[in-house]
Amino acid sequence: MKKTIAMLGTASVLALAAATAAHAGTIAGRVTDASETIGLEGATVRIVETGQTATVGADGTFRVTGLAAGDYTLRVSYIGADVREVSVNLATVSDTVSPTITLGDDVDYVENILVMGQRGALNSALSRQRANDGNVAVLSSDAIGQFPDENVAEAARRAVGVNVLNDQGEGRFVSIRGLDPNLVSTSINGVRLVSPEAEDRQVGLDVIDADVLSSVVINKSLLPNMDGDSVGGNVEIETMSGLDVDGMYLRARVAGLYSDLEQEFGHRGSINWANNFMDGRLGVAGSLSYQQRVFGSDSFEVDGGWDVDESVAFPNEVEMRNYQVTRERTTAALNFDYRVNNDLSLYARTTWSDFSDQETRNRVEIKFEDAEYDDVNSSGNLAVFTADEMEIDRDVKDRLETQTIFASDFGGEWLNGNTSIDWSLSYVYAEEAEPNRLDTDFSYEFENGELFTVDSTNPLRPELGFGGGITTDRVFDASNYENSGYELTNGLSQDREYAAAINVRHDMDFGTMPGYIQYGVRARTRDKKFALDFDVYDDDSLLLSDVVRSVEYGQGSIGPVADPSQVRDYFFSNLGNLDYVGIDSDIDSFGASYRVEEDVMAGYLMGSVENGPLRLVGGVRVEQTDMAARGYETFLAEEDATVNGVVLTEDTVFVTPTTASDDYTDVLPSILARYELTENVIVRGAYFASIQRPNPGQFAPRILVEQNDNDEVEGEFGNPDLERLEADNFDVSIEWYPNNDAVVYLGYFRKDLDNVIAGVGYENITLNGRFFDEAASFINLPEAEVSGIEFNYQQALDFLPVEGFIAGFNFTATDSEATLADGRVVPLPRQSDSVWNAVLGYDRAGWDLRAVVSSRSEYLDEIRGGADEDRWVLEHTQLDLSAKYSFNDTFQVFGDLKNVTDEPYRAVTRPDGIDRVEQFEEYGWSAVFGVRVTY
């Protein structure tokens, strides 16, 4: 019903066309700062006599067509500058006039607050947000440069309603309004990105360096000309065009990096260049950045949950982990823009990012669940154990992970009077590889009554105790630990998409009201596959003492660990003498591999009409989806298991290829309204329908079944029968611009979700004709909803006795709930109830100082068997500081501090209603310092 009402509303907008004006006079001008070298993107140009408006582009240009001969008044507004009115004359209906309009010429442009520093960044972002039809948040390159952000994800988290999920203490996945990052789409220069992640659709934006950005635009409401598979919204990454500048532009940055935890230095450098040629008709822009960062983390984790049935609660298995990481990131962009003439323009844009993590993880696993719990001596919060076939494992992971994203786009625009046609052909490729990852395990079994303790006085930081004497000697004696196996992994995930689109727009009058009708088609074909080559080897000749080293671990005594380089050398030197375990190798290799092909054909019709202060934009999009997938059913039956009435005499693996397909059509209406109560107060409202297709790893027909010698059966399944998630999205907001350097924004949103996809666990169930004691798969939940409010305040504090201060605060409060198959009501996974950012800046006399606090509340990370088993990630609040000093317009020095208060990552379960640690990870603080040159 909601979609029907919206379709009727949008149809009414389009049905308003009574006549199309035949005149074709054009005003094609440019709005710049006082130097006439920098275009003021986001400025609004209104034709006073007709009510038509145009938004100024990145190069400062604007275009208004369909005008009769006569005199016109252009009213130009931009945050940070006084409104300016300019008169122009069209001598005939075929005339074109090209005025250049300057703003801010009452200020010395060398220190022009319109375009430089924190205040200039604020002006630019607010102007673009104010002019937009929908609900967007904009971060300009200057604004991004004010923060100590490593990558695109960390830059995006400064926007209202945006949260970021971290990996190893660095921002990685973007969440909009608290929704799962898989429900957020990402584009670069208008090209939809695919994901290098093996299982998912989410794009880890730590792959792309923040230094190469021109701006980041967060679209929270969708128009019909945008892809419809984005429930949370879209992150649009923009890089520079040579037509954005007058003459050559050059910016270079060189920096050193320091990690406190590892006490290691890294380095970072970037260069951005742009220029135009052929009398300003050919623009060329290029960016290149490289970063090498050495860092690490210390983690205390619990596997297998907590036992709360004894007199003292204790973790079943404790893991102490030390990570050492060398991260390299290279990002390059090269853009060509060519204006053939005033009516035809072409472009070619490419972006390439390469990301690698060389990671070493040393882990010690202590399995208290296998020890004897001493009920007599355990008391208070101290659990006491005596060893009886209890293992301690000391393993090492030596892994190089690389991710590559390449995006290319060729297209153009042709203007013919009141009609414009644009087209694009794009190719996107993403890859994740793990070449020759080596996991090696050493273990020792304690069985002589050795004494161990766990003190859980602080359930978020339990303390381990070893009984002293012989127990402690054995725990920390590397010669006790024998090799118990190697795992060699070669994994490759590849995701590629070809796309083509064409859009046609007719500017016209709807009676006396200006507007347009636009329509277009877009085709996308996507191929995602994951191949895993997993080999298992046994060897009992290598002792930990043969390859031992020590590491610093800040959360306790980790003891001797394996040196990854020595282990790797030994493994490959002796590979021919190791025992290959084919059964285990086949299970994981076939069980993980898959291929999914996805074709989407879309078409849309939309229109816009302006009636004084009211602008309506609406239409409908239709998307046809065809999916086909391949995988394997992998069945492991252990020796003595009974299969089809036959008792097996050895472990056996049965592998059967599987296929699946699905197709469906979605009709996605939308309507957006923008109303100017006054020139400084804007009200917006929106409804749009959207979908989210299942992740490839959820849809792929992968079946993994294991039957033990007692004929107990466990299974894991993909689910090709999953329905896509469907969403009805509502937005309403009000923005107040009290003066030329401030905004106050308040918004409300609601999303009604059907067919939410979630993981599910089963016990004692028959699936696909086979009985399972335990099984895990994915299902559609009937419905869910999420709603919330957003608040944003930004202002230059000119009223203070001391000039130069800028303040900002944004806050998002959300509430969500989903009903599980068992009737339990939970919040949506990864949904924080509150997210906020507070900023205080100073920009004066060459100094550019910034302090920012970013905070989010706890969120549900994993839905498990019940509320006592669910995993929660606790609240996180981080302080970052930035300081810059500009000696002149060319030379600047800077220093940044991240995570000043050493905020950890904390995940818990609540088996008895108490927060009990499942993961406690510390990263320390980090610093960036260097110089920037701008010409």
At a glance:
The chain has 935 residues and is mainly beta.
Structure characterization notes:
With 935 residues, the chain is mainly beta. The protein has two domains: 84 residues, Immunoglobulin-like (Sandwich); 696 residues, TonB-dependent receptor, beta-barrel domain (Maltoporin, Chain A), CATH 2.40.170.20. Helices cover 8% and strands 59% of the residues. It has eight helices and 53 strands. The strands form eight sheets. It has a 30-stranded mixed β-sheet that branches. A five-stranded mixed β-sheet has the order 9-14-15-12-13. Strands 1, 4, 7 and 8 form a four-stranded mixed β-sheet that branches. The radius of gyration is 30 Å and the shape is globular.
**Uncertain spans, ≥5 residues at pLDDT below 50?**
1-23
Report, as a whole number of angstroms, the end-to-end distance.
Answer: 57 Å
Question: The CATH topology of the largest domain, please?
Answer: Maltoporin, Chain A
Strand content: over 45%
Helix content: under 10%
Describe the structure using short key phrases.
five-stranded mixed sheet; 8 helices; Immunoglobulin-like; Maltoporin, Chain A; globular; disordered N terminus; 935 residues; mainly beta; 2 domains; single chain; 30-stranded mixed sheet
